[in-house]
Amino acid sequence: MEKRYQVLRCGRLYDGITPEWKTGQSILIEDDHIAEIGNEVNIPEGARIIDLTDCQVTPGMIDAHMHMDFFDWHTVREEVYSQSEEAKTLAIARCAEKALRRGFTTVRHVGGITSNSYGVLDVKHAIEKGYFAGSRIVAAPMFLCSAGSHGDLSQGFARNPLLSQKLQNERITLGTGKDYFVNAVREQVKYGSDFLKIMATGGFFTPYDTPIQQQLNDEELKAIMDTAHELGKTVTAHVYTNELMQKLISFGIDGMEHGSLMNRETAQIIEEKGIYLVPTFSPYEEAVHYDPEEIKKKQPEFRKKLELYKDALQAGREVICSSKIKLGYGTDFVANHQNYESGYEYEAWMSSGMHPFAALKAATSVNADILQLSDQIGTLEPGKLADISAWKRDLMQDKKALLDCAFVMKEGIQYQTESCL
Questions:
Q1: Among the three residues 371, 386, 407, which one is the final residue of a domain in this structure?
Q2: Domain range holding 188?
Q3: Which of 2, 174, 207, 258 lies 20 to 30 Å from 336, alpha-carbon distance?
Q4: CB 44 within 8 A of CB 86
Q5: Per-residue pLDDT tens for 2-19?
Q6: Is there a domain that residue 303 lies in?
């Protein structure tokens, strides 16, 4: 088959590695991968020339904390039990398409908020086979959790025990005991999970738990990690408290999500161990940069917890931002933005004083490493897949720049873009 060549003429280029903009660069793409980058590249006869000289060109962005299985964050609670599993799979496909059009060529699905099936894996495989367009998906279809935990959304019906119990039983990775979770890990791996996700503490969004509760016991947590590692899979955990973060590290956790109540002692341990953290800043912005009027617009239980923990969230944000932890870029949008509007997290990083290049690196090369795909994506280098995004707004100054994608390409194929603005 005849090879297909394209040349991107770049205005400024960030390669995902060095915190600088390179000028006068061109990228030669051969079929689905990058063949050459430089001030002068070989231009084969018949190559398609794409002019991006008015843009900042970056690796395709990666969102490392997404829940894809709902249509609209305003109705996410209703969708848990009012939508069929087939409808939830359609929501996942829609999310993947919209994320791609916004410059995020890869997303990491960290457990279904509404779904109790494996539709995300069907969507993942369909995209890989080219049946329709969408971001590349790395997925843990379901989180491992206990009754009444942050992963048990039947707790919204807890005042109707018979209904709550029936709905709880539909969550097939919700259980108790070491043996249960050993088998649950094995089943998730059998069905195609790329990694495992634990709901280790309570959360902010659910009504009858708190962020400081440990929701699986030590034996269960260790059994999950040991079994996953035996099967060659990594494990991440939804976790907030310092005691449990340190405990998870001692059990061999590979990474953690949120960590929002972190102190300096815990941060230092994470730094020393080289464990990653995906801090998901945006959902807590109204508490960290205190805005009581915006907090009033939240769901009652979310509003109450943001007010209660705002001082601890502010202190934790300062610790995370001043640390040398390996930080990934993830959004966790279920209560403030649509799940595919990943660019809003960039605004939260910049508002927290993080350097733009720190956010860009987190969303490219660091996330590629977290997803174990750094040999394929995350940087602009010869041999990597041609996942490339471009932006016209100033990424160094404009907090909303990552909401307005001007160009996106995945594996050498250009797609129509959509703006979040």
A1: 371
A2: 61-371
A3: 174
A4: no
A5: 899 999 999 999 999 999
A6: yes
Contacts of 132 (CB under 8 A, 6+ apart): 93, 97, 126
Give the bridge partners for 415, in sequence order.
408
Give the strand pairing for 26-30 and 5-13. antiparallel
Q: By C-alpha distance, which of 351, 349, 371, 352 is closest to 360?
A: 349
Terminal Cα distance for the chain, rounded: 41
Total domains in the fold of the chain? 2
Q: For tokens 């394929």, what's the residue?
A: 376
Strand intervals (E) in 147-244: 196-199, 235-239
Q: Are 217 and 244 in contact (CB under 8 A)?
A: no
- Tell me: do 49 and 91 sit in the same domain: no
Q: Which tokens belong to 113? A: 């908020």
Domain of 337, CATH number, reads 3.20.20.140
44: its two tokens:
């084969």
Q: Are residues 83 and 36 in the same domain?
A: no
pTM above 0.90, yes or no: yes
Q: CA nearest 277: which of 261, 292, 290?
A: 261
323 and 179 belong to one structural domain: yes
pLDDT digits (tens, 9 = 90+) for 104-140: 999 999 999 888 889 999 999 999 999 999 999 999 9
